[in-house]
Amino acid sequence: MSPAADAAPARASDPDALPATARGADVSPAGAGERVLVVDDDPPLRRMLERTLHAEGFEVTVASDGGAALAAAERAAPDVIVLDVAMAGLDGLAVCRRLRERGLPTPILMLTARDAVPDRVAGLEAGADDYLVKPFAVQELLARLKALTRRHGDPHGQAVLSYADLSLNPYARRATRAGRAIELTGREAALLELLLREAGRIVTRERALVEIWDDAAEPNVVDRYVTRLRRKLGSPPLIRTLRGTGFALRA
């Protein structure tokens, strides 16, 4: 094998391609335990992505069509979604639109073989955060996923948090729902921020106590503040109680 071929990056068209970490190189994993949902109806590519992302430290959930993707996005509460555009039935653009209509803020990376400007614009207008054309280098995919999760998880990179018709600026402690301003105390804003950052996922009472009350209050204080938030947010209710576990924002 020539040196040029030796140096060529692994591409998505090669089902056996693996990143450096999977081959034993001393490289820090890109995923670091973050959850990724991979949606693609091409079995070889889907298996390659699952194996590659798992090797990079991601917790990987896969879906083979649009309907399964919608169900998995709600069930798995991923940190980032890799979504193929051209799928039979419910395609990637339709899936992306439905996820955004449901208020899901998770960053979405679209995969497509189409590289024309109108195709890219269509993906972004559907609600995608980034766009990658096939065939692609695996290292570029990893770099884009890392950038998406970093921006999404950085409070300074995303000043306003949103879910469904609810928005919160955690630094100004200003919240609105369907355009209606909502006055919040400091602790109410902190609890709502925690719920928004974990939208769709369960926030336990124990975690809320540690992060908001420094573990210096009785557990039922969380329930009291949730009740106050529900009253201020109005109907239809967004904060769900999961008996014996905690709370979650679910439209």
Q: What is the level-2 CATH architecture name of the largest domain?
A: 3-Layer(aba) Sandwich
Q: How many β-strand stretches?
A: 12
Count of folded domains: 2
Highest-level CATH class of the largest domain: Alpha Beta
C-alpha geometry? elongated
The spatial strand order of the largest sheet comes to 2-1-3-4-5
What share of residues is helical? Answer: 25-40%
The arrangement of helices and strands along the chain is HEHEHEHEHEHEEEEHEHHEE
Biggest sheet, in brief?
5 strands, parallel
Quick overview:
The chain has nine helices and twelve strands. It has 251 residues and is of the alpha/beta class.
Description:
This protein has 251 residues and is an alpha/beta fold. It has helices spanning 3-7, 43-55, 66-76, 92-101, 117-125, 138-153, 186-197, 205-213, 220-233; strands at 35-39, 59-63, 80-84, 108-112, 130-133, 161-163, 166-169, 174-177, 180-183, 203-204, 239-242, 246-249. Strands 2-1-3-4-5 form a five-stranded parallel β-sheet, sandwiched between helices. A four-stranded antiparallel β-sheet has the order 6-7-8-9, covered by helices on one side. Helix 5 links the parallel strand 4 and strand 5 (130-133).
